[in-house]
Amino acid sequence: MKELSILSLPEEIQVLVVELVAANSFADLYRLRTTCKSMKALTELPTVYASFDVFNFPWYVHTPHLLLRTLYAAGNPSALYIKGVQFFFTFGLQEEGLALMKRAADAGFERALYTYAMTCKIFWDDEEYFSRLTRKNVDMIGRVVRSLNWGRGMSHNIAFVTKRDEFISSVIPLFYSCECTPCLDRDWYLWHIENSKDQKKNGYVRVLPHSEKKGNAKVQFSSPETGDGNVRKRKTE
């Protein structure tokens, strides 16, 4: 079969192809850029820069600041998200940071949607964007955060730290204690292990299975003599 050259396609289709390449792989975009002058010109279009995902960029290439400025000027959602997070959580510029995160979320950038929805809930109890989140979104973001350990040791403003602690102590327990919550028992166990480290009694803790949780049920402590099958010994830290 005779090969079809991308140059034989209408220019509008060529632009769509280049945008998809930009969204998926920086390496492939660079190779496409070097094929010919017309492809090089297409890769420099604002719509192509807007399709690029900053998180796919190989940061060992020493052009990050120039690239970020170019992407930000083109309204790239991932660049808007990064700048918005920096403004809000590091510099304390809430209005500017929130506006940038909202632009990225409205453009369909998944990380921005999650961050914006959670930020509005934590700071202002605004749940408007929660309806756009799916269980798949939350699971994906959770895996990314746990694998990269994001946020640990970073410089956050005092307002964020205060609201974060308030959210952890009040909202999260309600989520996990609700019988209608579609979470796994393992999620429940992991949450209590992480947030009950300072609650020790004889080195043992009883965690309630999801099927036994009612209302605002909390973790119950017990001693080895109870014979409770759900009693587990904590590791000495």
UniProtKB/TrEMBL annotation:
Task: Name all At2g35280-like TPR domain ranges.
Answer: 57-127
Per its UniProt entry, which superkingdom is the organism in?
Eukaryota
State the Pfam families in the record.
Answer: TPR_27 (PF23310)
**Which InterPro entries does the UniProt record give?**
At1g67623-like, At2g35280_TPR_dom, F-box-like_dom_sf
Disordered: annotated segments:
211-237
Name of the protein this chain belongs to: At2g35280-like TPR domain-containing protein
Q: Specify the species.
A: Brassica campestris (Field mustard)
